[in-house]
Design goal:
Blueprint lengths: L4 E4 L10 H11 L3 E7 L13 H25 L6 E7 L2 H12 L3 E5 L13 H9 L4 E4 L16 E6 L9 H11 L2 E8 L4 E5 L4 E4 L5 H20 L5 E7 L3 H11 L3 E6 L13 H9 L4 E4 L5
Parallel strand pairs: 1-2, 1-4, 2-3, 4-5, 6-7, 6-11, 7-10, 11-12
Antiparallel strand pairs: 5-12, 8-9
Helix pairs in contact: 3-4, 7-8
Length: 306
């Protein structure tokens, strides 16, 4: 399914944390990988042409950025000489990267969240956040580590966890997820989180809280299992190793992250929900929370909406 990978870099070791996994995917798929850096012009900072800073410094910065990309390519070429290339783009950064993805026809973006310090698992970097919210192709977010990225290391994962909420929209992530898992020789866990019954008021007969007139927890769990088993059987017919898991939890995102912690060597693959107008800029609340709190890579896809 994947034919070309783009890895955005900002010149920092944090952004390069995406390279080992991206290169492993490209090598296994036999597809090209391109690293890209967006140059931001100094023109907006020096509006007065008499200052001369833009004409003097901007070409120097651009040349330094090209030298940086050339150095990255030299490192990558030692392990995958036929697969790698670079592109020096012109900013603004997120817009330049997304336009390049469309022009180049890349169908997978692999990038680091650029997390730092104690909040590294809470906030995405602004560029990663923007790209995830607007990209028309799947984005694989990699959490940065303390050690320097080792591009010679073959990154692999044993499990792909695919959370589903019962909607057809959520199932759109299945094909990108199995395409990635096939390359990594991973198995799959189809996960359905069922919310427990919610009290709606005081029941004078029992003296306790009354529950909404909804199917019982057992019925909901049984329906969820039937739903997952149906999808799992379709995938098993394609020779994929598939497990199903139904969890009852009031906090779906927390349950998804817990499942990834329970299965070491996991990747989470999750679909956002389409929204219109201003809401199109927002991720679904569950996907957003998973993306911001998971310690494992997250493959996220946004529906195509007009």
């Amino acid at each position: 399914m994947f034919h070309s990978i783009l890895v955005p870099l900002d010149g920092s070791p944090f952004s390069e944390q995406a390279l080992p996994l991206a290169l492993s995917i490209a090598r296994r798929a036999g597809i090209p990988l391109q690293v890209a850096h967006a140059h931001v012009s100094l023109a907006p900072l020096y509006a007065d042409p008499r200052a001369g800073f833009e004409n003097t410094l901007d070409p120097k910065f651009r040349a330094q950025e090209q030298v940086y990309l050339d150095g990255v390519i030299q490192r990558l070429a030692k392990v995958a000489p036929q697969l790698v290339s670079s592109a020096l783009l012109d900013g603004p950064v997120p817009e330049a990267l997304l336009e390049h993805v469309a022009a180049r026809g890349a169908d997978l973006i692999v990038m680091s969240s650029h997390g730092r310090g104690p909040l590294s698992r809470v906030w995405l970097g602004s560029v990663a956040d923007h790209i995830v919210r607007r990209s028309s192709v799947p984005v694989l977010i990699v959490r940065p580590r303390e050690e320097k990225a080792d591009v010679a290391k073959d990154e692999s994962f044993e499990h792909v966890i695919i959370p589903l909420d019962g909607s057809e929209e959520a199932e759109f992530i299945i094909e990108p997820a199995v395409a990635l898992g096939r390359l990594l020789d991973a198995d799959y866990t189809l996960l359905r989180v069922v919310e427990p019954p919610v009290p709606v008021g005081y029941d004078p007969v029992t003296g306790g809280m009354a529950l909404a007139e909804l199917p019982s927890q057992e019925e909901e769990e049984a329906r969820a299992k039937i739903y997952l088993d149906r999808l799992a059987e379709r995938l098993r017919q394609r020779a994929f190793r598939v497990h199903t898991c139904v969890v009852t939890n009031a906090h779906a995102a927390h349950a998804i992250v817990e499942e990834s912690d329970r299965q070491p060597g996991s990747i989470i693959a999750i679909q956002t929900h389409a929204r219109r107008g201003l809401a199109r800029l927002l991720l679904g609340s569950v996907a957003d929370k998973v993306l911001r709190s998971a310690s494992v890579p997250v493959l996220i896809s946004r529906p195509h909406v007009k």
